[in-house]
Design a protein that fits this description.
Layout (H helix, E strand, L loop, with lengths): L1 H15 L1 H15 L3 E7 L5 E7 L21 H9 L6 H7 L3 E3 L9 H9 L8 E3 L1 H4 L7 H14 L2 H12 L12
Parallel strand pairs: 3-4
Antiparallel strand pairs: 1-2
Helix pairs in contact: 1-4, 5-7
């Protein structure tokens, strides 16, 4: 049932936000020379997939979790995209393709071994990763792996259609935050 809503809502979102995609892509081209960011992430059943986002950091930034990246790597456009969460919009394509869900545990990097171990112990990898979820609307990010995995597990144990739409709504209304970035 949730996959049905993932398909419908991501398709509608891609169509509605097409003008914003075009504008951000153009601005991103002038900002960094490459508006999109592609990164291998851990997906359902620990299978790799390529996550797509709008680029918010300089192109020479190391591929690490956001909380390990330096704030000076974020561009001016990137700060705006992160604040509005527009950097996440291209993930609607990942949702439409079936690699992600709108609601689920945020996909981690393969080098985040502690988080992968914590999630594996809790059965979190049995579902598609998501754009938002319980952890995100409660400002729990990947800098606290055990707490994040525990929160993901709690969300999955009780995820209902009402919760699904509530997490999407809260995210669209600005509740929660992305992963922290360490200060210079």
């Amino acid at each position: 049932m949730l996959r049905f809503f993932d398909i419908i809502l991501s398709a509608i979102g891609l169509l509605i936000f097409l003008p914003i995609f075009a504008l951000i892509s153009l601005m991103g081209f002038f900002d960094t020379g490459s508006p999109f960011f592609f990164q291998q992430r851990v997906g359902r059943h620990r299978q790799p997939f390529t996550l797509v986002k709008f680029r918010t950091m300089r192109r020479d930034t190391l591929s690490v979790a956001s909380h390990l990246a330096d704030v000076s790597a974020i561009t001016r456009l990137g700060r705006l995209l992160r604040k509005t969460k527009f950097d996440e919009l291209p993930q609607l394509w990942n949702v439409l393709k079936g690699e992600m869900s709108l609601v689920g545990p945020r996909p981690c990097l393969f080098n985040q071994v502690e988080l992968i171990d914590e999630r594996a112990k809790r059965g979190v990898f049995t579902v598609r990763p998501g754009i938002t979820g319980l952890a995100q609307v409660n400002k729990i990010d990947m800098s606290t792996p055990a707490l994040l995995a525990e929160t993901d597990q709690r969300m999955l144990a009780s995820l209902s259609l009402t919760d699904y739409f509530r997490y999407i709504f809260l995210t669209m209304m600005g509740k929660g935050a992305g992963d922290r970035v360490k200060r210079g």
